[in-house]
Amino acid sequence: MLVSVGDNPKRIRSQAAFAKLAGVCPVPASSGRTNQHRLNRGGHRQLNSALYPVVIVRMRFHQPTTNYVARRTAKGRTT
Fold this sequence. Notes:
With 79 residues, this protein is mainly alpha-helical. 53% of the residues lie in helices and 8% in strands. The chain contains four helices and two strands. It has helices spanning 2-6, 15-22, 45-61, 63-74; strands spanning 26-28, 37-39. It has a two-stranded antiparallel ribbon with strand order 1-2. A hairpin with an 8-residue loop joins strand 1 and strand 2. The two termini are 23 Å apart. The mean pLDDT is 86.
């Protein structure tokens, strides 16, 4: 992650900028009356693949993240 962000750290001003660089930011995919989003598939592929194990470990061991996942699955959302 440091290699992909380290080449120009000034472009990472916020969490949203990092998500856009990694290709994990939501993109509107609405048509007609539906209002939905999908994940951006652009971005740095190696950074995106490095984020996946971090998220999996946080979902299992980080208490605020496990609380968030439990709350979302109770609402009927997917993990």
